[in-house]
Amino acid sequence: MNKLKIGFPKGSLQESTLALFKKAGINIYVNDRSYFPSCDDEELEIMLVRTQEIPKYVEDGVFDVGLAGYDWIVESGANVKEVTELIYAKSGYRPVKWVLAVSENSSFNSVADLKNKRIATEVVNIVKNYLQKKKVKAEVEFSWGATEAKVPDLVDAIVELTETGSSLRANKLRIIDTVLQSTTRLIANAAALQDDWKKRKIENLSILLKGALAAEGMVGLKMNVSDANLKKVLAVLPALKNPTVSGLTQKGWVALEVIMEEKIVKRIIPELKRAGAQGIIDYPLNKVIY
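-> structure tokens emitted (290 positions)
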């Protein structure tokens, strides 16, 4: 049987990636004592690996595909093919940022102020490239962890990953610039994309994962409406939404169905009821394929 080998992120992205795959219809079962999860898709062979290592393993053909942050693709310099961008992170559906931060009471206000200073980070290559573009010479050292605690006693500034900036603020740090914005990418080995079966399997995986992300925060909304009230009900719906309207067996009535943001649905359901809609149902979505 053909198998597609996947490098699956272990660590901060693991749980959110497992949830995304589940919404895509692919159930992965992780055993804490094994790096090889089981899966209900027998054509997938999955291994848990630190996301920092995945790009190089994909480049070398150890994996056909992998999920890794754009930051680690850039940092590693790996020659891989990007299949699709998947905008999700550890705790939300948004990009993450590597930011340049200093002590909150520091006199440094821009990267130019860090000339000949010391910066600690996990992404040394990214920071060196950033400094080169800014034409600032500074010492960049690799940080093995606890990076936020190193300012100002050990280093003058850090470049650290953040989603909301709350951890930096809690450690009395102030952001002075964004070095790189990153999202998760589905990446592939060039040779795998030359194999017809693997290419199709990768494309299928991409479609399902993108569909699962597109469904995030969306719900389906169904209701029955009399012809007499249809205009009033349609007026309640957001102008950009085009509902499906189909006739019912009961003369003078139609069924109306639309997909929309859950945050809007909870606000307009009472208004739909007042406008004459009946049998209103909202239901969760796993995938929306455009």
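The chain has eight helices and 16 strands.
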